[in-house]
């Protein structure tokens, strides 16, 4: 069994961090990464909510 080097560990952590960021983004947007339609609908809904919040602030 090969002992992982520092560079190996850094690469693993980089990959896992990227996966975690993508997951958090899907969670935040309420999107399903398997459905492009749901993803687009969710993004549009979020944009509409953001615009409504901006209007409410004015």
> What's the total count of β strands?
0
Strand content: under 5%
Largest sheet at a glance?
Answer: none
Which consecutive residue ranges, at least 5 long each, have pLDDT under 50?
none
Shape: elongated
Alpha-carbon distance between the two ends: 63 Å
Q: What Rg, in angstroms, do the CA atoms define? A: 18 Å
On the 0 to 100 scale, the average pLDDT is 82
What would your notes on this structure say?
- With 58 residues, the protein is mostly helical.
- It has a domain at 24-58.
- The protein is 79% helix and 0% strand.
- It contains two helices and no strands.
- It has helices at residues 6-29, 36-57.
- The longest helix is centred in the first third of the chain and has 24 residues, at 6-29.
- The radius of gyration is 18 Å and the shape is elongated.
- The model has no long low-confidence stretch (mean pLDDT 82).
Could you give the topology of this structure?
Elements lengths: L5 H24 L6 H22 L1
Gist of the model:
The chain is mostly helical and 58 residues long.
